């Protein structure tokens, strides 16, 4: 029993690896500006992604790193995505967890890494203030953009500082 | 006598100091008077009897002593026979001192024998030694060695006789009498107490004398000289002319009998004067050692290059019948305890000699390997040597050294290394059929061959080269083809049927355990199959990939319509590597065979409608005739025949030669999935050809259920005939771009034709050609220089070319310049062809092709994973890139440096790279 379960597990992770490798190839051959992602090691289930903040938002010119973890049944379940760079945002809590519908119940197997990262990039400019994880941010977003920007910059760290 | 000697003598009595000279009669020693006692009775108080007797005895003894010593003392010059007459007085004195009361008691008084011994010593030291020392003072020259030794021996023997004579005549008989009489008298020396006391005294005397002799000679110099003399005698006896001492043998060799006699005499004489002994035996040991070496390097044991036999039996018989008798003779002369030679000793000498012979051979093993199989004799010698202890280790290490010094360096071409490797395989198979040694010595060579880029190419193309059709200069030593491999290929091969699981085959009745010295990687190879060794140089997959490339290239260029050799090679490799892996090659082979069939079918379908449908023939007739029809007077280059090979998505084309005026087209249809990456330069082929291509395509689609063809023009070859004003020339096996280019020099229909019959051909510039043909400029230049080289085109200036319609008359300056230009261009063209001729893409091309993707990978990696060393980047690339990343750290470094120049990445020192901020 355990054996067969293992076997299935291996087979599944092999297909995930194949799928992820193909996605990697796609990202590399057709890069999307402002978005990159790369696996952490050879088993491909953990990735690090980088997105840059969209222009004309408080996150302009800032670079954010994220970690993505893929379950063995990916793409039938969403990847677990966390911000590794501290970010001040209505839909991200202070430990980097993200509240985004496509990463939860609205996930579909047609999404891929690039679309997930694009969604996250657009979330930076258009937060969903109706269900915030960070109430203060949601409030300030409309009320006091200057203060909001200041808090964003105060919380942000460059990737190099993170590594250090 | 200096003070220090006296001090020393006071502690350690030196005989020569206390030695008494013969005392005169008149001065008897009465002893000292002790203080406090009356004169004349020194011992009165203690033991009157003994004292009286003692006193009497002392006087008597002194008188006798004086008499005997005077009688025995040695004259200065020993050759003087004059001697004191032995008279009664002397007799009595001797008898008294030697056997009666006068014998020394308790070692207090000196015995007469001791005195005489001392006398001899002193005499020797004073009168003989200086002469001898002079003889031995300097180093003994080799040519004087015999004389010095003989002279020494003569002097010593003479002296010894002189010393021994009085001893034997006067002292020894008395001692013998005494010994034969009662032996109750207790004496100091236990050996004297025995019945052969006299013999013992004799032995002791001789020993003492000989010790003095031996002592006066410089021991080391003596034994060296003796050793040389023995060596010299040995060399003469065995007629060994190449000697270690560098002495040139006499022009007329001495008679060996004389030499033997001289040696025997000398040795016996030396033994008589006590110079035999240990030092002589040691010297003889040295001499035999050198003699063995000399004999082994002598002409007797030269490698047998003619009858290719081992010379070990000769060596053994020499040891038995030449060397042993000599040793026996010498030992007999030296009177060694054991003068007969045991069989075990003979055996050990044989082994020793074999070991030396083997080492001497192994030192040149590399030369023997290169000259295999003329060197069979030497290899057989070494084979015998391998039985000696540690021989294998020595061979392995020595040969590895030779190989790394003489073979594995950049100066040796890969072909040469391969040829030597094959020789090694063959000769070591003879040396040790089990292959353990081969495996060991070949390891560095195999590793080195693997590193060379061209190894696989040379092996495979050599395998594909026939011996018979390609003989001659193609197999020169620096060429790209190995004659050895090709000839190996020509050998018939049996189905070796090597089971992969031989160890698990329980029914194998011939099973044998692995040799005990085999290494873990040792694989049993039952056959001396050179190709098997070559094919297993790489991992199977690597080799097959390389094979695919070369095989594909070869198939496309193959002239043999039956592909006989290619089929054979594939079968051969299948036998060795297993047929499951060679699927791609099989498909490639089937493609070309099938193409032939399809070509046939298509040609018949083309020809059949020719009769009925007007359209097709029209097409075909029109094209070739256009230029001629319009310009019958000005002959144009025309290419009536061309054969083109094309490569298509699934298929390709080749072409045959039809009737001279009509181009024909044959295609090779290749299954793109199975073939390696092929050249795919795009350019316009001549119009008639593209028409044919279209036609072919439609026929093909009809036959093959609408499968599409993609033409790969760069792979084509053509045969054409060019017709000029004054001549016409045939060309075969041209590349498609060369053909297309020369076709472009044909006048276009709309072009006004001003080339009149003055011999001026059509002129084109490079820019025109580029536009017209849509061809890569590099290819254009290559093709242009090819045609200039063939004296078809002439360069007007650097990028304008014209047809040479009329060859200028010889001797005109134009001819010369044309010839020069042609020669230069031909060379250039050859060079360029060498680099562009391959149909399969090289690794460098692949890298250039996929550079963008690789760069994207590197950038993505550095951006997301932070800074990384080159090694890790390369490793990640190998794991991540789909379809594999067949490059290493070097290529990655190259890419990184390129990125650095563009300002995208930055080197953080060492190997570590990272993304440049703000890039």
Considering the chains and any ligands shown, give keywords for the structure.
heterodimer; A: alpha+beta; Ubiquitin Conjugating Enzyme; 5 helices; 40% helix; globular; B: 919 residues; mainly alpha; 3-stranded antiparallel β-sheet; 34 helices; 10 strands; 57% helix
Largest sheet of chain B: 3 strands, antiparallel
Q: Give the strand order of the largest sheet of chain B, numbering strands 1, 2, ... along the chain.
A: 5-7-6
**Count of separate structural domains of chain A:** 1
Give the uncertain stretches of chain A in residue-range form: 1-10
State the total count of DSSP E strands of chain A: 4
What is the strand tally of chain B?
Answer: 10
Largest interface: A-B, 22 and 16 residues
GO molecular function, one term (chain B): ubiquitin protein ligase binding
Domain Cullin family profile (chain B): 491-788
Region (Disordered) (chain B): 23-54, 609-663
Keywords (chain B): Cell cycle, Cell division, Mitosis, Signal, Ubl conjugation pathway
Can you offer a commentary on this structure?
The complex is a heterodimer of chains A (164) and B (919). Chain A has helices at residues 2-29, 113-125, 135-143, 145-155, 159-163, and strands at 35-39, 46-52, 63-69, 80-83. By secondary structure, chain A is an alpha+beta fold. In chain A, a hairpin with a 6-residue loop joins strand 1 (35-39) and strand 2. Chain B contains 34 helices and 10 strands. Among the domains of chain B are: 3-216, no CATH class; 219-359; 687-695 and 711-748 and 756-837, Cullin, Chain C, Domain 2 (Ribosomal Protein S5, domain 2), CATH 3.30.230.130; 843-915, Arc Repressor Mutant, subunit A, CATH 1.10.10. By secondary structure, chain B is mainly alpha-helical. The longest helix of chain B is centred in the first third of the chain and has 36 residues, at 145-180. Residues 25-30, 40-48, 182-195, 470-478, 495-500, 608-660 and 753-759 of chain B have low confidence and may be disordered. Chains A and B meet through helix 1, strand 1 and strand 2 of A and helix 32 and helix 33 of B. Chain B: GO terms for molecular function: ubiquitin protein ligase binding. Chain B: Belongs to the cullin family.
């Amino acid at each position: 029993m355990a054996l067969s379960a293992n076997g299935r597990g291996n087979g599944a992770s092999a297909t995930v690896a194949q799928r992820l490798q193909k996605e990697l190839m796609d990202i590399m051959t057709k890069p999307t500006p402002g978005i990159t992602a790369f696996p952490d090691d050879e088993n491909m289930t953990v990735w690090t992604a980088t997105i840059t903040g969209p222009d004309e938002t408080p996150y302009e010119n800032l670079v954010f790193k994220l970690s993505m973890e893929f379950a063995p049944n990916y793409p039938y379940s969403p990847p677990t995505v966390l911000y590794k760079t501290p970010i001040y945002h209505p839909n991200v809590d202070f430990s980097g967890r993200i509240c985004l519908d496509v990463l939860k119940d609205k996930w579909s197997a047609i999404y891929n890494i690039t679309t997930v990262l694009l969604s996250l990039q657009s979330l930076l400019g258009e937060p969903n203030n109706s269900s915030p994880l960070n109430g203060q941010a949601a409030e300030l977003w409309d009320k006091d953009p200057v203060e909001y920007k200041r808090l964003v910059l105060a919380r942000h760290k460059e990737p190099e500082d993170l590594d250090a | 006598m200096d003070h220090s000697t006296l001090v020393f003598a006071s502690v350690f009595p030196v005989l020569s100091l206390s030695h008494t000279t013969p005392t005169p009669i008149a001065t008897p020693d009465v002893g000292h008077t002790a203080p406090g006692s009356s004169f004349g009775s020194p011992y009165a108080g203690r033991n009157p009897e003994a004292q009286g007797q003692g006193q009497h005895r002392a006087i008597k003894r002194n008188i006798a002593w004086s008499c005997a010593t005077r009688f025995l003392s040695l004259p200065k010059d020993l050759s003087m026979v004059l001697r004191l007459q032995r008279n009664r007085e002397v007799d009595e004195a001797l008898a008294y001192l030697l056997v009666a009361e006068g014998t020394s008691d308790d070692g207090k008084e000196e015995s007469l024998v001791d005195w005489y011994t001392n006398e001899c010593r002193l005499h020797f030291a004073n009168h003989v030694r200086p002469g001898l020392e002079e003889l031995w003072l300097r180093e003994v020259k080799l040519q004087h060695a015999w004389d010095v030794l003989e002279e020494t021996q003569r002097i010593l023997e003479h002296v010894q006789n002189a010393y021994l004579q009085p001893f034997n005549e006067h002292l020894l008989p008395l001692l013998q009498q005494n010994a034969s009489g009662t032996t109750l008298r207790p004496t100091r020396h236990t050996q004297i107490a025995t019945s052969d006391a006299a013999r013992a005294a004799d032995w002791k005397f001789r020993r003492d004398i000989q010790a003095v002799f031996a002592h006066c000679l410089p021991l080391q110099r003596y034994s060296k000289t003796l050793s040389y003399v023995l060596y010299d005698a040995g060399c003469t006896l065995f007629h060994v002319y190449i000697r270690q001492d560098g002495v040139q043998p006499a022009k007329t060799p001495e008679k060996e009998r004389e030499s033997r006699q001289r040696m025997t005499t000398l040795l016996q004489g030396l033994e008589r004067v006590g110079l035999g002994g240990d030092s002589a035996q040691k010297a003889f040991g040295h001499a035999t050692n050198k003699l063995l070496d000399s004999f082994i390097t002598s002409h007797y044991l030269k490698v047998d290059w003619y009858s290719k036999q081992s010379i070990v039996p000769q060596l053994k018989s020499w040891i038995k019948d030449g060397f042993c008798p000599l040793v026996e003779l010498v030992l007999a002369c030296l009177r060694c305890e054991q003068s007969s030679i045991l069989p075990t000793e003979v055996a050990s000498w044989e082994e020793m000699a074999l070991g030396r012979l083997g080492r001497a051979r192994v030192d040149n093993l590399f030369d023997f390997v290169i000259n295999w199989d003329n060197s069979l004799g030497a290899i057989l010698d070494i084979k015998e040597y391998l039985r000696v202890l540690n021989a294998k280790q020595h061979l392995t290490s020595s040969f590895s050294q030779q190989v790394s010094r003489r073979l594995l360096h950049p100066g040796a071409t890969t072909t040469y290394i391969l040829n030597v490797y094959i020789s090694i395989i063959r000769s070591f198979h003879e040396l040790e059929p089990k292959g353990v040694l081969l495996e060991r010595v070949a390891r560095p060579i195999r590793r080195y061959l693997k590193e060379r880029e061209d190894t696989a190419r040379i092996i495979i193309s050599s395998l594909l080269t026939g011996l018979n059709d390609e003989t001659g200069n193609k197999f020169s030593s620096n060429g790209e083809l190995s004659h050895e491999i090709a000839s190996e290929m020509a050998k018939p091969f049996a189905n070796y049927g090597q089971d992969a699981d031989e160890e698990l085959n329980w029914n194998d009745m011939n099973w044998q355990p692995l040799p005990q010295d085999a290494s873990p990687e040792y694989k049993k190879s039952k056959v001396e199959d050179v190709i098997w060794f070559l094919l297993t140089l790489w991992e199977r997959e690597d080799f097959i990939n390389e094979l695919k490339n070369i095989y594909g290239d070869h198939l496309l260029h193959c002239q043999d319509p039956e592909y006989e050799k290619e089929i054979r090679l594939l079968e051969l490799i299948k036998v060795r590597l297993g047929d499951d892996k060679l699927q791609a090659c099989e498909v490639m082979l089937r493609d070309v065979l099938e193409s032939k069939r399809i070509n046939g079918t298509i040609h018949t379908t083309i020809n059949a409608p020719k009769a009925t449908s007007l359209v097709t023939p029209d097409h075909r007739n029109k094209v070739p005739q256009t230029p001629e029809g319009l310009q019958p007077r000005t002959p144009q280059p025309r290419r009536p025949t061309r054969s083109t090979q094309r490569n298509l998505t699934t298929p390709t084309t080749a072409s045959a030669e039809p009737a001279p005026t009509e181009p024909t087209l044959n295609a090779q249809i290749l299954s793109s999935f199975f073939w390696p990456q092929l050249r795919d330069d795009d350019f316009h082929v001549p119009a008639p050809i593209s028409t044919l291509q279209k036609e072919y395509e439609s026929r093909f689609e009809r036959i093959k259920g609408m499968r599409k063809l993609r033409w790969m023009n760069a792979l084509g070859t053509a045969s054409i005939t060019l017709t000029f004003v004054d001549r016409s020339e045939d060309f075969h096996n041209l590349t498609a771009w060369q053909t297309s280019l020369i076709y472009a020099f044909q006048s276009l229909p709309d072009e006004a034709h001003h080339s009149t019959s003055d011999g001026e051909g059509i002129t084109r510039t490079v820019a025109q050609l580029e536009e017209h043909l849509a061809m890569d400029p590099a290819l254009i230049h290559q093709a242009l220089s090819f045609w200039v080289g063939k004296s078809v085109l002439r360069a007007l200036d650097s990028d304008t070319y014209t047809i040479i319609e009329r060859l200028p008359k010889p001797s005109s300056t134009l001819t010369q310049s044309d010839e020069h230009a042609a020669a230069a261009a031909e060379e250039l063209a050859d060079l360029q062809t060498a680099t562009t001729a391959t149909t399969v893409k090289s690794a460098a091309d692949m890298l250039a092709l996929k550079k963008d993707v690789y760069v994207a990978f590197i950038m993505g990696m550095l951006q997301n994973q932070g800074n990384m060393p080159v090694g890790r980047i390369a490793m990640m690339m190998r794991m991540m890139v789909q379809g594999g990343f067949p490059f290493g750290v070097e290529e990655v470094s190259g890419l990184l440096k390129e990125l650095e120049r563009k300002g995208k990445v930055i080197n953080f020192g060492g190997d570590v790279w990272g993304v440049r901020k703000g890039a």
